[in-house]
Design brief:
By secondary structure, this protein is mainly α. It contains seven helices and seven strands, in the order ββββαβββαααααα. Keywords: Coiled coil, Metal-binding, Zinc, Zinc-finger.
Length: 382
């Protein structure tokens, strides 16, 4: 059974009688028991001087085997793995190792019986191999003798012809093999060319796809910017419409206030103004029927009609819903129109307007004669 060496008393003890400290140093349990104090149960390692408690010392729970026994088991395992395919150098090493193991072994009869069985098995498997090798060596010697005789007979014409026929058959076989190799080579070249062409086509297609992807990404960025611009414009337009709605509401309130004020003033002043104050005497006309008197009620009725018309336009503007969807029907990026209104159309419209208008105007749209506007009783809405 293996023993441990105590570094304190320099004695040899069984593994069960040895203890090890946490630092790795150890010795027999008798020496370790003396380094710990009786009251504090503390002690210092005699090698590294580290302080430990008595409970830190523990046994070595290992099953150590004698090196001779381990060498014996390894030799047996190596012999069991040997067969006829093992080279001769391994056989020589195995023989040497077996001899060394037999010299070192000093054990009971059971191990000796196992060793004898392994050696007998080794002899049963290896000796026949050497016998076959010896027989093969004899066959080789006989073949060498036959070869010498054949070389002597090869000098004759028959041997030369026979050898030539064998060579012809070999040449035919080699030619067929060469043709087959050439055919396979051509097929390999064809496959390589087709694969190269496919690779180039795939590479070109990949480049085209990459360019198309870049172009689409560029177009996508442009469209996104355009969409953002349209969204900002729509939001701005909404804000303007909302501001206009508030402004119109204020104007309506002011207009209603003015109407109420003017109605009250009108009721108070109807009795004080004569009817002739509302006759347009200075309005130019070719006939006497064009100038007609205007009553105060008609005058303010027209005023009320204009106010109601303003309210109607305001309601239509407030009730209308502005469609800000610019995705449908919008032209693409870079669209421009070259259409222009011709000067003839403009002149025709201007002439038609001048003919239909009751007051003669000059080319700048200003009246050419004096115009009677009547009494100023209205306020313009800013």
């Amino acid at each position: 059974m293996p023993h441990g060496h105590c570094q304190v008393c320099l004695g040899y003890f069984a593994i069960s009688d040895c203890q090890v400290l946490p630092c790795g140093h150890g010795g027999c349990k008798y020496c370790l028991g003396q380094i710990f104090d009786t009251f504090t149960n503390m002690g210092n390692c005699w090698m590294c001087r580290q302080e430990y408690h008595r409970s830190g010392a523990h046994r070595v729970h290992l099953e150590l085997v004698d090196s001779k026994v381990a060498n014996f088991h390894n030799t047996i395992e190596g012999l069991e793995k040997m067969d006829a395919s093992v080279p001769s150098i391994s056989v020589t090493r195995a023989s040497t190792r077996i001899k060394r193991t037999v010299d070192e072994i000093n054990c009971d009869n059971e191990i000796a019986v196992s060793l004898r069985q392994a050696i007998a098995d080794f002899d049963d498997r290896i000796v026949p191999v050497f016998i076959r090798v010896e027989a093969q060596a004899k066959d080789v010697e006989q073949l060498q003798k036959q070869l010498t005789c054949a070389q002597g007979k090869a000098k004759t014409f028959d041997d030369v012809c026979e050898n030539s026929q064998k060579k012809d058959a070999l040449i035919i076989a080699l030619r067929s093999e060469l043709d087959r190799s050439d055919k396979e080579g051509r097929q390999a070249v064809s496959v390589t060319e087709s694969l190269t062409a496919a690779y180039l086509a795939s590479k070109r297609q990949n480049e085209l796809d990459t360019e198309e992807k870049k172009r689409l990404e560029h177009d996508n960025r442009d469209l996104r910017r355009l969409l953002e611009c349209h969204a900002k414009s729509a939001q701005s337009r909404k804000d303007k419409i909302q501001a206009l709605k508030h402004e119109i509401t204020k104007l309506k309130q002011r207009n209603e206030t003015l109407e109420e004020t003017q109605s009250s003033v009108l009721d108070e002043t109807l009795s004080t103004f004569p009817l002739n104050d509302y006759v347009d005497e200075t309005f130019p006309s070719s006939s006497s029927s064009s100038a007609r008197p205007t009553s105060p009620s008609e005058h303010f009725r027209n005023k009320s009609y204009r106010s109601s018309r303003l309210s109607q336009v305001t309601n239509e503007l407030s009730e209308s819903e502005v469609d800000v969807n610019f995705d449908f029907g919008m032209p693409g990026p870079g669209f421009s129109s070259d259409w222009k209104m011709s000067s003839t159309t403009k002149s025709k419209k201007r002439k038609a307007a001048s003919l239909n208008f009751p007051i003669p105007l000059d080319k700048r749209g200003r009246p050419m004669v004096s115009v009677q506007t009547g009494p100023v009783r209205l306020r313009r809405v800013p």
